């Protein structure tokens, strides 16, 4: 079974994001970028399927600028076999990404496509679902468990207050949740190996896909600053404050 | 910890290189670049790798910085056309003596050469280093970011064999967790240590080979820095301001820097010599207080703080420079201590020393040598402009240690009249950790409360350093004795680690049984190494945490 994994280059999750002074977006100059954590989980899931003898090939695909190759290298170091960069400059919105991925899916004909449930930069949680619709494929989102037997995928999903188990006939799309797995630490030899694995660069404009942005960002702003807390001496003081200052009791 | 986990996983894997470089700062990357350049120009191959504990190249780099391009030009004569981020030339130098309310500007013609920055560039060293990293990769250097060198390896004959990276996935109790990855051994014909000030492995090598024999104790300073975006009306690209005086008392060595970069950004920082005596002194709070001076505050009104961090500075100069080589390797950059303390400039020295060591390494490799002493490196250093520069500057720090008044006067005579060629060389008599006075002989200092606009507390500051450590791992701030922190540090010195640590890692708390306890919030650590330097009984030992832990500075 061929597995395709989508990986996005995002601001590292340890970095405190900072809104640009003019409110037009988030500052990314000189900021550490990494693989979207949910995509790292997706790659790990695919590589585990390969290690279990289920997947035959794991392909990582990223859409974006040439720097996204670093992100693909991370996927290759975890254990993906090869990478595809759909190269384009400028902003890509989820619909455009889904269309580009569809073009790659048509070319590669994977049996399973694994994406992150959301990218931690714009938190859209749309790409996987749109891709499923565009390709007319079954989907299981927010997966916390993926099993495969007798040409059937059994996926456990995280839903409010519990879990739901679905059966899908591949080809299918799965998006990953946090609990699916804990990605491995990449090792030095795997990084060295990853440098030698192939990455195909495909210019986005060669795919005959309309990637124009159809949403306009009006403003990006920081969350309101949290008011400083106070320490109360004892329970009485707390009750007093809840009564007189917060007016909740 | 190593011994407990390793046996069950068998021997570590290893990789072989001609040269292994520990630390991807200006020194390490320049050495790597130079090795590859030499190989290319002489038609041979060398295999070089660089280990960097930060999650990416530049993530742990914090500097001022005004950079003297002299060494960069030697490394890449065409750095400009290659797009090195040295964009803002120094346009104006100001040196201010501060009193609480006033600022006195020293006339520029009276400034010693070391405070004149004509022809230098205001840079983010982090960005320069990111650029150097990209150049190195292009030349074929293997850069492993996110991997800390945790251990020095030795050959049977005692020479350095290489280093081992730390284990990954060890939990708080020191046991292997489900995704445990044992460290790797990196073996090299020569290993260059480029960890910056107070290198964790450099310190061990210095001890093992007694490299400080007949030299002075190394001395350090702590530099705390913030990056600001200021009101465009107050911004003057290329303006460089240094101050001395208030808020420090005249017995404590220190001062500030304030550098205008481009894009309305200003780097502001405070440097305090770690030979300070009063255990109540808090470099962090001195820095916050300094910003409230009318002459300084005006720049920041209406601005916003973008980042924060701190790093130790190796300020011993020539007198404290250890022997640079030992069988199988060398110390370069601030790991050795090549920093001109009179200019607080070390980045050019780091690059230069990296190049000199690389030349010696390359020649040795060509001669099919390995694991011996690279004597050509110290010899070349002696003949270089760097030696000349450090020789002239050698008395700056010791004079300043005598207090600001006499210090400034004598530095003036030393540098202006004698141009640094005075026939005397002053000694650093004490290591920094020996300088604290007991609390009862010292005056407590009351610092003003932060206002959250111009001045801040430690926690909100640490937040924007983006520091992070995997939670479930043993603390990398280790204690030789568990009782010393309370019995000596707290009892005798009023717990100085609570004040000198710029990240609030050390907190004395009262346990339920009423006893005092040192709580170590290792996750906040900025890898500045101040505790390792200043702890009065040298009970605190900084070791490398799991790779990629630590700050993630955006262009500091
Ligand atoms: C506040 C401040 C202001 C300064 N101002 C100036 C200035 O204006 N001009 C100037 O020229 N210089 C200035 N300096 C000095 C300058 O920053 C240093 O001299 C220079 O950074 C030294 O370079 P280096 O490569 O030796 O070490 P560093 O820059 O410290 O780099 C060392 C690298 O090695 C990594 N490392 C350390 N240990 C390990 C390990 N065990 N395993 C893996 N990786 C490791 C670190 O993460 C780091 O990336 C200033 C320094 C400070 C702190
Ligand atoms: S714990 Fe030590 S190294 Fe870490 S920030 Fe504090 S003083 Fe610096």
UniProtKB/TrEMBL annotation, chain A:
<keyword id="KW-0813">Transport</keyword>
<dbReference type="InterPro" id="IPR014730">
    <property type="entry name" value="ETF_a/b_N"/>
</dbReference>
<dbReference type="InterPro" id="IPR012255">
    <property type="entry name" value="ETF_b"/>
</dbReference>
<dbReference type="Pfam" id="PF01012">
    <property type="entry name" value="ETF"/>
</dbReference>
<keyword id="KW-0249">Electron transport</keyword>
<dbReference type="InterPro" id="IPR033948">
    <property type="entry name" value="ETF_beta_N"/>
</dbReference>
<dbReference type="InterPro" id="IPR000049">
    <property type="entry name" value="ET-Flavoprotein_bsu_CS"/>
</dbReference>
<dbReference type="InterPro" id="IPR014729">
    <property type="entry name" value="Rossmann-like_a/b/a_fold"/>
</dbReference>
<feature type="domain" description="Electron transfer flavoprotein alpha/beta-subunit N-terminal">
    <location>
        <begin position="23"/>
        <end position="211"/>
    </location>
</feature>
<protein>
    <recommendedName>
        <fullName>Electron transfer flavoprotein subunit beta</fullName>
    </recommendedName>
</protein>
<comment type="similarity">
    <text>Belongs to the ETF beta-subunit/FixA family.</text>
</comment>
From TrEMBL, chain B:
<dbReference type="Pfam" id="PF05187">
    <property type="entry name" value="Fer4_ETF_QO"/>
</dbReference>
<keyword id="KW-0285">Flavoprotein</keyword>
<keyword id="KW-0411">Iron-sulfur</keyword>
<dbReference type="InterPro" id="IPR007859">
    <property type="entry name" value="ETF-QO/FixX_C"/>
</dbReference>
<keyword id="KW-0249">Electron transport</keyword>
<comment type="function">
    <text>Accepts electrons from ETF and reduces ubiquinone.</text>
</comment>
<keyword id="KW-0813">Transport</keyword>
<keyword id="KW-0560">Oxidoreductase</keyword>
<dbReference type="InterPro" id="IPR049398">
    <property type="entry name" value="ETF-QO/FixC_UQ-bd"/>
</dbReference>
<feature type="domain" description="ETF-QO/FixC ubiquinone-binding">
    <location>
        <begin position="220"/>
        <end position="313"/>
    </location>
</feature>
<keyword id="KW-0408">Iron</keyword>
<dbReference type="Pfam" id="PF21162">
    <property type="entry name" value="ETFQO_UQ-bd"/>
</dbReference>
<dbReference type="InterPro" id="IPR036188">
    <property type="entry name" value="FAD/NAD-bd_sf"/>
</dbReference>
<keyword id="KW-0274">FAD</keyword>
<keyword id="KW-0830">Ubiquinone</keyword>
<dbReference type="Pfam" id="PF13450">
    <property type="entry name" value="NAD_binding_8"/>
</dbReference>
<feature type="domain" description="ETF-QO/FixX C-terminal">
    <location>
        <begin position="452"/>
        <end position="553"/>
    </location>
</feature>
<dbReference type="InterPro" id="IPR040156">
    <property type="entry name" value="ETF-QO"/>
</dbReference>
<keyword id="KW-0479">Metal-binding</keyword>
<protein>
    <recommendedName>
        <fullName>Electron transfer flavoprotein-ubiquinone oxidoreductase</fullName>
        <ecNumber>1.5.5.1</ecNumber>
    </recommendedName>
</protein>
